[in-house]
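Continuing the batch. This is chain 6 of the set; chains 1 through 5 are on the previous pages. Same settings as before, nothing changed between runs. Recording input and output for traceability.
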Amino acid sequence: MIEAPVTSYLTLLNETDFPAMVTVKNGDMTIARIPAIPSGAMLEVPTSQTYTVVAATVIEGNTYTSAPTSVSGPASFLATILQHGAQGTYEFDMQELPPRSADQMEFQTTTLSAVTFTISCNGIHLQSVIVSDAFRAVTLSLADTYTLYAVINGVTTQIIQTTNPDATITTRVGPSGAETGDFELVVG
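Output for chain 6:
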């Protein structure tokens, strides 16, 4: 019998009178940017998803973009340029390599130009990683610590962390009250 993979969800509750925009990170990697959780609403954010990574660079004033690659965990990416001498053109490519660590994403390039790796999920831009030097690796930790903050009525809450991938996080009015812009996140 094959068992289905277990998916964990962070449950986000908004107990304020305003929409809450929430950002969620897993280690260093942004895994969700929620534009607005309505007042009184609940939203579940899966802690493991499939992400799309695309690399882009500029060579001699022209922008080159790689084909998208889907990834759902630790991975390593290498951006390269191949020159086709006879045509005087370049081919820009991004390869997914086996991860060097079980708890990180790694990005590197062999190009002289900076490369921007863009991470998105379901068409929503989550994060960009810029590698400015050839053969220098930039890593994002995927440690099992979830970091969250919210923007409520133009006020950014304190940053909170949890190691529980099934935690419930509630946005609510703080002790000073909404009139003073006091909002908080509480892990429950």
